[in-house]
Structure formats: C-alpha cells, structure tokens
What does this fold into?
Amino acid sequence: MSTDLPHTSGAPTLEDVARVAGVSRATVSRVINGIRNVAPDIQEAVHRAIATTGYVPNRAARSLVTRRTGAVALVVSGAGDAKGGEPFESRVFADPFFGRVASGVVGYLRPRGIHPVLMLADSAQTRDDVVSFLRQGSADGALVVSTHGEDPLPKLLVDAGLPAVLWARPARPIPISYVDLAHRAGAALAADHLVARGCRRVATISGPFDVPAAQDRLSGFQEAMAGHGHPYVPAVEGDFMPASGEAGMHRLLKEHPDIDGVFVANDLMAQGALLALRDLGRRVPEDVAVIGFDDSAAVTCRPPLTTVRQPMEDMAAEMARLLLAHAADPDFQVTSVIVQPTLVVRESA
Amino acid sequence: MSTDLPHTSGAPTLEDVARVAGVSRATVSRVINGIRNVAPDIQEAVHRAIATTGYVPNRAARSLVTRRTGAVALVVSGAGDAKGGEPFESRVFADPFFGRVASGVVGYLRPRGIHPVLMLADSAQTRDDVVSFLRQGSADGALVVSTHGEDPLPKLLVDAGLPAVLWARPARPIPISYVDLAHRAGAALAADHLVARGCRRVATISGPFDVPAAQDRLSGFQEAMAGHGHPYVPAVEGDFMPASGEAGMHRLLKEHPDIDGVFVANDLMAQGALLALRDLGRRVPEDVAVIGFDDSAAVTCRPPLTTVRQPMEDMAAEMARLLLAHAADPDFQVTSVIVQPTLVVRESA
DNA sequence: GCGACGCCGGAGAGCGCTCTCCACCCCCGT
DNA sequence: ACGGGGGTGGAGAGCGCTCTCCGGCGTCGC
It folds into this structure.
C-alpha cells in the first residue's frame, strides 16, 4: 500500500484515489455514489484510499454531467423603489417573517444536503439576474417570497420553464405551485373569538391592499363579523409595520372612541396598537381586546398577544418539498397547498 | 444568417452560438469574457447570435475550469444543543442581528455578482459539512458569524487553508481575518453619558460571559465607571434575549432599589428592561436612565432607546470585502478591522 | 460437460467551458 | 520587394466527473 504522492499540487481527484486504491475511476465513482454492486474488499480499499488522499468530489465537475447542483435559490422579491430610503435588503431581512421562512427552508433542506442561495429581486435587472442564475444551472429551482401581489417574477420563471414554488397565491393566476394560508378562515377565527368574549364595537387594522393576503384577512374578518350580526366594521389600512399599527389605533379610537375589540392584520402592527392603547390609558383586554395575526412577535408584547398562528416554518418546509419534487420530475403537477391557521389565546383577548 | 435549430434539445451551448455566428467557440468565449481584441463586426455577430439563441453560459462548466464559483458561504456557527428546545435555525434567523449582517453582506456582494449561500454549523457534523462544501469548490470562501467565542469552526477553516473571514475576534488567537467592534470604547461612551447626565447609582445587565463581546462590554463599562469614581458597578448576566433583560432588571432593582441608571449590553435585553421598569412604575429616563447597545431594536422601544450604535451592515460589508480579497489572492495578508461605535441619544437616557 | 447468463470492473466518451498555442494576414520598415 | 512583427481567429487539450458499453469470469441448468 504505497501512498503515491497526489500526482501534482491541488486537490486530489478521482484519478488519484483510483491510482492509490489500484482500481479504475469508474469503480471509485461507483463506491462514492453507492451505485451498483462493488465487491466488499474493493469498497474497503477505495474507502481507505479516499481517507489517505483526503479526497472530496468536485462539485462543478459533478454538476456539469448530472445537471443538478444541490442548491436552490431563496428569492425575496418585491419593489425596491418603495417610500423609505432604506435599501430593500435592510427592510426584508429585518422582518421576522423572512427569518421564519428561512428557518423553515433550511430545516427541510439541510438534512437533504441542499443549500439555499440568498437572492433579492427588486428591479427588472435583478429579476433577470434570478432567471439567468437558474438558467445557468446555478441552482435547481427557486423558492420565491413576494412582498406584493403583482410581482412579475413568478411569471418570468414559469415562462422560462424553471422549477419554482411561491409563498402565497399570486395576484393573477399562473400555473405555478404555491403554499398559502387560509387567511379568511384565520380572520374568522379572530372574529369568532372577539364576539364570543362579548365585544360589541369591533374594528380592524388591515395590511396594505396591494397584498392579497391582507385583502383576504380583511374581507374574511368583515364577512365573519357580518355573520355575527355586525355588518359594519371600521377599518384602517396599515403597512404591516409597527408604526402604522400605532397610528392606525390612534385614528380608530379618535373616530370610534367606544371600540372594545380590534383585529390587527399582523403582530408587528398589533405591537404598535398595544403601545397606542397603553398611551391612551386603555387597558387590554379589559377595555379593548386585541387579536394579532402570524404569531411572530406575540410573546414579546405587553400583554402577550392573542393571535392567529401562521405556521410559517412548516409552510416554508412544504415549499422546499414541492420544489425538490418539481426539480426531480419536470412533469410533477402544479400543486397548491393551503394551510389552516389556529388561534393562540394569550392575554390580549 | 440562417438560424439553425439549436442542434438538439437542452440549453444552447457556446458551440451553438459559435455555429450561428459563424465563428469558433474560442471567439465567442472571448467576446463574452471581454478578453483580448475581437473585431467589432465579429463582436456584433456574436452578440446577435447570443440573442437569437438565448444563450446563457453554464456555470458548472465555467467554474470547472476557472476554479471559481461566484458564491460564498454565509455561515452561522454555534452550539445546537442549547437550553431551549427550539432548533438552532429558528433562534438564529429570528435574531435581528442576523438580518442586519445578511443585509450588509448582500448589499456588498450583489453588485459584484456574487451570491451568498446560507449555512448553519451547530455540530461537529455540520461543521465538517461546511469545510467539505468549500473544499468541493462549492463556494470561494466563508463568512463566519459565531454565536460564542469558543467556536471550533474558524480553526478548521484555517487548518484547511480555506479563505474565511470572521465576525468578531475569536476567543483564542488564530491567524484569520475578522471584523469587530471596539466594544470597550462603546461601553465607555455609555458610561460617560450616564455620568454626564448625573446618574449616581449605575448598574449593568451584561451578555453571556462566554461571548467575548459581552465580556468586553462589561469590563469596558466597569473600567470607564471606575475612571469616573465608581469602582463598584452592580451587574447581572443575561443571555442577550428580551426575557433575560426583564428578569435582570427585576433582580437589579430588588437588590439595589436606588438605581438611577442602567447600561444594558444589547437592545433586545434593554427592551425587556424597559418593560420591567414600566411594570414597577419607574419612569424612564427620569427615575432610571437606560442605555442599550447595537441600535437594533431601539426605535420600537418605549421610550425610544438611547443606545451605542454598532454599524452592523457596514461591518458585514467589510467582511465580504476582505473575503473577496482573500479569495482573489491567497497571499492577501490576514487583517483585522476594528470599527468604532457611536452613541445615539434618544429618549431613554 | 458445455453453453448461457449474470455479476462486476475497466475503458472511454463526453458534459460546456477556458485558454494556450498556432496559423494567418496585414502592414510596416528597409 | 521582402522579412518580420503585431494583431486576430481557430484548433484542441484538458478541467473532474458520470455513465454507457463491453469484456471477463464464475456459476448454473440441462
């Protein structure tokens, strides 16, 4: 068992391992990939050779022939030219929403040896970059989280025939798989709870209207309240950020001082609403009951927030699962998975 | 100019473009990579051919020969077997700290066409995965953010001769580039401000002692206070999470009811401390002045938090810059960049 | 006892690209 | 008019891997 020098400088290759083991390249490849039967003693020899050479297969070479990369793009897509001066990436990554999605994706992909590549698409240029990235074969598919409904990226991906899975139903129907929450059902859960605890003057702070999920939560809530005999529900529009929840609550109370229950379309805004309520001396939940949505910032609120839980990690994992299925089988059928939310009762309602 | 069919199915290759343009593969490659002179009319023809074929260079093939990938690993490294039952990825990505680092990294890398690959290293197995990933040539280097000082990953990377840059100075000195904050100077800023506004009974809530940055903030604060004639500063240890700030504040006030100023080692804990103070009826800053650290959650606090600002995005961008330098030139010297913090005065102190 | 079949290892052809040579041509100097 | 040099395009050798095909050998059936 002479350990020949690894022929030249640089990393050892299959060839080197084969030479050390005294077999052919093909056999080493078979052992590594566990394909076909290889005699146990030869397997043993190959493993020893791999250990002594410190061989690691070259990813580029492998993916050149297999046409698979073991990577997927995790794309956050939205409009960069928003109001704020802050760059898109700051706003995106600061959002706990992104963190939870990333967490779910990583949790699913990691045990499978797949790695997510972080990408941002906030302009025509960067959207094209995403498409090129995939067409280059840099990743096997894309997981897309859009910050608003009219995002053009999903359609680009579909047109290019690239495997992709969306977070949330796109505004215009296109043939693409996605995972979404039953927002209306979630809003109804909140309405039921508010009514059950005896609230008579109920209002809501909604998300931005250009986000389909926000529309669904609003209309779902209104309908459920109508079903309970409350056809009119005061509503103000927020932007899903804490400050807008605070401002919205102030506006609501100014116009309707007798409000005793509020459904806020996400926890971040609910956090703001809670601050406003406290500033105005309203007790929660005694004077005003508050229900949030997402269960993202709920435990750090004062009082802890009753909220509609969206199991983001599970949903993100499901996206990853669907994407791998699409990548493995081009004929895998377009699928949409709708997840049911649950009400988490804490102290605010 | 007959547009031959792209020879078979599958993506068009350099060969196809060359045939359509009526030149050789080499020439097309030259045009694409802008290397050497190519006659203007031929360039033109090549560009037309690229457009008509819809050609995109194959990343794997390219990186097989160039030995560069255009990707870097963004690794969050720490211990998975922590107290909480939550998986490592949840804790990591929920932290606004990670979001800001990611934002800075992406901001720098994106214009340069480099993509970050998200990785987690929370066990011996996953640390090896990171090393293998890089040795496979899946990425050109690693950006490592460790959650505690004794992380073994940096040493593994150095020993393997892989380009890597760390967030924060490692606990044991190893020859690796890193970017860090002047924590002691930041803590001194807080001490000076507290003393200047007339606080006489000052305490601190520190971070976990196994994090070097936490130690530095604590000892830097103590030393600065000693310099102001306060040799003894009550201190309790937290874990950088909001709940521990709240608990710490309660403990501090129980043991030292006359406290009129607190330096909290990060904003998340300061947020908790603020809640505790409010629950106990202490006014901020009139009764107790509070200074946080990081400037991460400061504006959503009540009152808005005076804090020591750590320019995380800039620091992360600097990490990326150093990494690319190391990747481009193996002889690039090991460098440590220490960034100066600033005090941001808001309302809490 | 002989042919056929199955099992297992080796040879070699690419995957799509870059890059080093080399050949060619045009222009200039003497 | 002829040799040489600079600039430009083409040919072809790989980069490290997978995978199909083939050949050799052992075994089983009749």
In short: Chain B touches chain A through 49 residues (CB under 8 Å).
